Amino acid sequence: MDGHSHEALVGGLYKQLKPVFENSEQAMYLYLDDVHKVCNKRFADLLGYDSPRAWAAVEEPFPMVFVASKSRRTLVSAYQDAIERFVGSAIDVTWQTKSGGAVETRVILVPVTYDGHVLALHYISPR
Fold it and tell me: What is the model's pLDDT at position 1?
């Protein structure tokens, strides 16, 4: 699948879920890969980004940029379970902020499908 199709995939699912993204009291993001992802304002704010667009523009490896080293294996394993086995999970994740700080959270990660592809939807609450 080419990049344009990935953009259409993430954009289409975001459009369908837009009321949830805009109105959820939780920070949240939708992830397909390091380049194709979208978040709400609460998540961008949580990590110190000016906007969801600024957060999504970061194309470096997701775990290395956004996730504290102690939480990377946990988040990646939960993501793989969601994508490969359609398993949801609730995990503790420490995020890295843009300025280098840390934010302790509880993440609910669930698999979702759209147009025949599996993506992971994440809901984040501070702890």
Answer: 47
